[in-house]
Every structure is written in C-alpha cells, then in structure tokens.
C-alpha cells in the first residue's frame, strides 16, 4: 500500500504500537496526518508529534465512528478493519 501513497492521512482509533502495523508506517515516516481517538504508548508517534513532524487530530471515539461514512464518501481510501487510510 505505501508504495502507492507516500504520505497518507490515517484514521484509526489508536496510534498502533512501535513495531507493528501503524508503528511501522510511522517509523518509516509514511504518515503525515493522523486522526485518532487514543494515541496509546507508541514512542515513535510521540516523538514525531512533539517534533512537529506529524499532524494529529484527536477525536472522540463516537465522532470517529460517525464520521467514517463521510470520509469514505469524500476520499479515495484504503480500508482495513482497523484503519482508514485517506
């Protein structure tokens, strides 16, 4: 997926973990913007956010679920059960 999209905007209920899933994309600096309801304990996420490399929009879980259909209608997306990549 990341060979086609250089800097996707990711919508996920969390920021993943350091060595798996979104954590791997963050480590490779493949995510430019993250919309999430919980950031968890991802050290790479924290580092990029505090340095200003990563744009973050914190959204309540209910709002995140409600807006999923709006994002799907208005964007080219790649969907997995855990994440929306816009």
TrEMBL record:
GO molecular function terms listed in the Swiss-Prot or TrEMBL record: succinyl-CoA:3-oxo-acid CoA-transferase activity
Protein known as: Uncharacterized protein
Superkingdom field: Eukaryota
Gene Ontology, cellular component aspect: mitochondrion
Organism field: Aromia moschata
């Amino acid at each position: 997926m990341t060979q086609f999209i250089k800097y996707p905007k990711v919508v996920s209920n969390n920021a993943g973990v350091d060595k798996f899933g979104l954590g791997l994309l963050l480590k490779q600096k493949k995510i430019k913007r993250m919309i999430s309801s919980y950031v968890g304990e991802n050290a790479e996420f924290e580092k990029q956010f505090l340095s200003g490399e990563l744009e973050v929009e914190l959204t309540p879980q209910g709002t995140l679920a409600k807006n999923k259909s709006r994002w799907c209608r208005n964007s080219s997306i790649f969907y997995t059960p855990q994440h929306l990549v816009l």
